[in-house]
C-alpha cells in the first residue's frame, strides 16, 4: 500500500511538472494525486495502525479495537477530517488574502507604491522588490507577501517571461524572509509555539544573517549577469474612467488592505485562533467598507470594485491545486512515509547539520510542515546541547525548512501560490531559478555553520 501511494504521488508530481507537454492542467493532476492516494490508503488498510490509534477518539486500552473492521471506516473518516481541517485553514487563508489583494488592486491601491518605483532597470528593480519582499514576509508571512508582490509585479512588468522570473525570485526572497521570523513561516511558527525556539530574539539573531545570505548571494550573481530594462503594462484609461476612483478612495482601500493583512498575526497572537480567522475578519471589514463606499455607484462599477465582484476574479483552480497537493502530502504522512523518512535520515546520517540540510531539500518535494513535525516528535527537548531550547539543531532546522523549499516552485506555500496565480511552468522554474535558490540555500547554510563555529 505504501509503495502504491508513493508511486501515485511521484506520477502526480511528474504530471504537474509536465503540465505543458501533456496539456493537462496542474489542478486536475493535483486533485487526482490527492484523491487517488487517499483511495489507496482506505482500500489497503485492514487494521488501525498502532502508531495512529491514539488519534482515534473512541480508542481504549484493549488493542483488539485495532483490528475491529467496524471501527476502521470511522477511524479513517476522523483522520481525513483531521487533515482536512488543517488544509481548509490554509485554503481559506489563501482565499482571503487573494481577495483582499485583488480588491486593493481593483481600486488602483498599488499605484501608491508602483508610482514611486520609477526605475526600469532590471537589476535595480529586483534589488528593490527582493528587499521589500524579504521584510514584508517576516512581518506578515511568506504566502501573503508573495500574493501582494505578484499584484505589484503585474503593474510593473508587461512581458510574461520577465515577470515569471521576478515572481520566481521573489518566492526565494519571501521564503528566506519568513524563516527568521516566528510569524513569517509556518515551520518557524511551529518551532516557536512548541517551545523548541521560544525566544524570538534568539531566532532573529541566529537565522537573520543566513536568511539574508540566501537572498543576497543570488542577487549578487544576477547583478553581474542580468541586463536590460523592463516594459511596463499599458494603462486602460477607458476602464479607469468608468470606475472613477478618487485619490481618497484609493488611499482608504490601500490602507485598510495593508492594515488588514498586518492585523492577521496580531489577531493570532492575541486570540490563539488560526490565522485564517484573522484573515476572514479583515476580509469582512474590507467587504463592508467597499459596500458602503460604492453604494451610490452604477451596477457595473459596483461589480468591478466591491468584494462580491472581486471574488469572481479569484482563480479557483489555484485553490483546488493547493487542495490536491496537500491531500497527497497528508496521505504520505498518514501511511507513515514521512516519519520513516525522518527516522532513516537520523539513522543513516546522524550529523545534525546534514540532517537539517536534507530536510530542507526534501521540503522542496513534500511539504515542510510534516517533516518538521516528524523532527519535533523524534527529538525531545533536552536541558543542554544541540537539542536544547534555542539549540543549534532547532535554529538550523528553522532556516533549512524555511528556505529549502525554494529549490522547486512546488516546494513551498509561496511557490504553489505563485505557480497557481501566474501559471508558472514547473520545468521553466527548474531551468531558470532552481540553481539560484540552491546557491542561496548553500550560502545561508554556510553562514549559519560559520556563525556557530
Key terms:
453 residues, 2 domains, globular
In short:
This protein has 453 residues and is mainly alpha-helical. The chain folds into two domains: 215 residues, no CATH class; 201 residues, no CATH class.
What features would you describe in this structure?
- This protein has 453 residues and is mostly helical.
- It folds into two domains: 215 residues, no CATH class; 201 residues, no CATH class.
- The protein has 23 helices and no strands.
The residue fraction in helices comes out at over 70%
What proportion strand?
Answer: under 5%
**How many strand elements?**
0
Unreliable stretches, pLDDT < 50, 5 or more residues? 55-63
Largest sheet: none
Number of domains: 2
How does the helix and strand content classify structurally?
mainly alpha
Q: Report the span from N to C terminus.
A: 45 Å
Order of helices and strands: HHHHHHHHHHHHHHHHHHHHHHH
Mean pLDDT: 84
Query: What is the gyration radius calculated from CA atoms?
Result: 23 Å
Write the layout of secondary structure elements.
Elements: H1 2-17, H2 19-22, H3 26-44, H4 71-106, H5 111-114, H6 122-139, H7 142-156, H8 160-179, H9 186-193, H10 200-225, H11 237-243, H12 247-271, H13 275-293, H14 299-305, H15 307-310, H16 316-335, H17 337-348, H18 352-362, H19 368-378, H20 392-403, H21 413-422, H22 426-432, H23 434-452
Amino acid at each position: 500500500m505504501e509503495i502504491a501511494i508513493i508511486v501515485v504521488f511521484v506520477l502526480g508530481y511528474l504530471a504537474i511538472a509536465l503540465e505543458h507537454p501533456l496539456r493537462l492542467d496542474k489542478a486536475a493532476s493535483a486533485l487526482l494525486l490527492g484523491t487517488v492516494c487517499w483511495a489507496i490508503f482506505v482500500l489497503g488498510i485492514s487494521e488501525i495502525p498502532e502508531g495512529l490509534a491514539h488519534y482515534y477518539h473512541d480508542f481504549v486500552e484493549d488493542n483488539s479495537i485495532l483490528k475491529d473492521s467496524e471501527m476502521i471506516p470511522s477511524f479513517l473518516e476522523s483522520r481525513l477530517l483531521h487533515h482536512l481541517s488543517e488544509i481548509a485553514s490554509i485554503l481559506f487563508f489563501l482565499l482571503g488574502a487573494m481577495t483582499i489583494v485583488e480588491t486593493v488592486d481593483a481600486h488602483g491601491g498599488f499605484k501608491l507604491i508602483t508610482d514611486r518605483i520609477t526605475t526600469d532597470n532590471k537589476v535595480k528593480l529586483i534589488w528593490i522588490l527582493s528587499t521589500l519582499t524579504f521584510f514584508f514576509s517576516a512581518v506578515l508571512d511568506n504566502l501573503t507577501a508573495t500574493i501582494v508582490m505578484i499584484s505589484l509585479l503585474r503593474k510593473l512588468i508587461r512581458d510574461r517571461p520577465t515577470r515569471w522570473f521576478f515572481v520566481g525570485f521573489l518566492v526565494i526572497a519571501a521564503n528566506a524572509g519568513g524563516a527568521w521570523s516566528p510569524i513569517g513561516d509556518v515551520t518557524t511558527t511551529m518551532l516557536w509555539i512548541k517551545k523548541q525556539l521560544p525566544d524570538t530574539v534568539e531566532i532573529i539573531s541566529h537565522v537573520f544573517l543566513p536568511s539574508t545570505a540566501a537572498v543576497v548571494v543570488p542577487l549578487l550573481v544576477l547583478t553581474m549577469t542580468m541586463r536590460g530594462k523592463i516594459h511596463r503594462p499599458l494603462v486602460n484609461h477607458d476602464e479607469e474612467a468608468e470606475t472613477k476612483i478618487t485619490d481618497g478612495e484609493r488611499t482608504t482601500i490601500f490602507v485598510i488592505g495593508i492594515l488588514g493583512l498586518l492585523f492577521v498575526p496580531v489577531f493570532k497572537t492575541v486570540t490563539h485562533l488560526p490565522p485564517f480567522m484573522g484573515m476572514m475578519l479583515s476580509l469582512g471589514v474590507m467587504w463592508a467598507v467597499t459596500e458602503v463606499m460604492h453604494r451610490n455607484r452604477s451596477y457595473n462599477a459596483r461589480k468591478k470594485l466591491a468584494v462580491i465582484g472581486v471574488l469572481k476574479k479569484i482563480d479557483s483552480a489555484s485553490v483546488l491545486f493547493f487542495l490536491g497537493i496537500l491531500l497527497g502530502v497528508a496521505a504520505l504522512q498518514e501511511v507513515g512515509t514521512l516519519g520513516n523518512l525522518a527516522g532513516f535520515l537520523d539513522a543513516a546520517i546522524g550529523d545534525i547539520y546534514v540532517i537539517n540540510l536534507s530536510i530542507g531539500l526534501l521540503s522542496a518535494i513534500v511539504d515542510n510542515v510534516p517533516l518538521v513535525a516528524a523532527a519535533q516528535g523524534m527529538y525531545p527537548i533536552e536541558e543542554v546541547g544541540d537539542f536544547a531550547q534555542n539549540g543549534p539543531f532547532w535554529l538550523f532546522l528553522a532556516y533549512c525548512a524555511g528556505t529549502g523549499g525554494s529549490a522547486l516552485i512546488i516546494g513551498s506555500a509561496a511557490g504553489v501560490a505563485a505557480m497557481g496565480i501566474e501559471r508558472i511552468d514547473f520545468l521553466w522554474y527548474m531551468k531558470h531559478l532552481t540553481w539560484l535558490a540552491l546557491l542561496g540555500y548553500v550560502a545561508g547554510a554556510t553562514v549559519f555553520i560559520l556563525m556557530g563555529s
